[in-house]
Amino acid sequence: MSEKDDLILQRKQKLKELYSDGINPYPNKYRYTHTALDIVTEFSSLAEGEESENTVRIAGRIITTRNMGKASFSHIKTESDNIQIYMRKDMVGDEKYKVYKKLDIGDFIGVEGNVFRTKTGELTVKVRDFVILAKSLRPLPEKWHGLKDIETRYRQRYVDLIVNQNVREVFITRSKIIKTLREFLDNAGFLEVETPMMQSVAGGATARPFVTHHKALGMDLFLRIAPELYLKRLVIGGLEKVYEINRNFRNEGISKKHNPEFTMLELYQVYIDYEDVMALCEEMLTYTAQKVLGTLQLKYQDKYIDLSSPWQRISLYDAIKKYTGLDFGEIKNVKEAKKAAETLNVKIEDNYKRGKIMNRIFEELVEPKLILPTFIIDYPVDVSPLAKSKASVPDMVERFELYIGGQEIANAYSELNDPLEQEKRLNAQLKERKEGDEEAQMLDEDYLRAMEYGMPPCGGLGIGIDRLVMILTDSATIRDVILFPQLRKEVKQ
Asked: Rounded to two decimals, what is the model's pTM?
């Protein structure tokens, strides 16, 4: 039997003894009056040795304990902070003190008493009464860090949150980021909406979908890869400024930047183009960073990032030429593009077209070098089937991607609103799909029908919330900013 198993047995024995003593170790509720932060705020003026007149009630998890015979000091953890408690046998009584001795680190208790300041200057609750709120049967780890524990940390996030305050802070910051994005858009007159997560046609992005089956309807459905086509249906219906903070699902590999289930902010506004969307995106993200972090000067993985405006803009062609020396303006066909990829040691699939090869070279050799906020603008039409073509260069579209810290944060374009051109492009995608490209977009006939009723000029933007949180919290991997990331099946030891 391992040491851990032995400790669990000991705790289970203590649980039995509590029940035998007529004590319910799992009561229904406890009415507290203060959190740890409340106590620090309200009683900050207490001098050394001074005790408050008012009684407080506080609840939390025991995280440290120090027994000294007839008295004990412990720290309990509340959501806001930790607070010290002082337990004396002559104050709570013999029977109560015996119960206290059966408590372990990890147990929840509620305590009642007066606040005083110790000789070391620490605010402490002098306990006059207490109640057990939940008996913990598994011991908390003494050490919970380092590469060897990383998989366990993600798999048992509940323990990670208990023992790692910095992890808690990341997810508190994540919540503030999302709240601030909402605030910005609401103040700008956008309407928050909800669109289907199960769709009969997976559209709006180049990705491989998850397939599920609806038994009652007798039909296969796809988990949403993007809300785009439904949000644009709403634009057609007359909702001129809409957004959705949504969960998307893509049947792809797992990496530092990818999780099969992820969160995006997607928005659409009528009568604007991608230049206007760039300005909106820059304003929204600087507003969010400044409000949540109090600064636009960041450190991300030992790299300095200044989010101050204006952000750099460079075309996809010029970015590739700048960082690889390759001029795609002189590469006119797929054969030449494949040769260029081979020369640069960039692996591509046999069915890749010129635009996809160009994009793959960019992702491999240019993207990691874009540390400061950079808008990469103007993309080939064959990798942007939903974007409007540039009037001056028909084989290019008005599209941008935003890069910060060496990774894509946002994708946006002037939306294609010509239904005949859209049908042509989706049919081209359908052909690529039949030729083996599982990520090519599907033909959504209902969306084309909606477009035929008339779609106004429109700009759209998608922001990867998880990656944005990574940048703003200096997190190395997407799994550090998703509470329950997707993991391989646990192997039982």
From this structure: 0.93
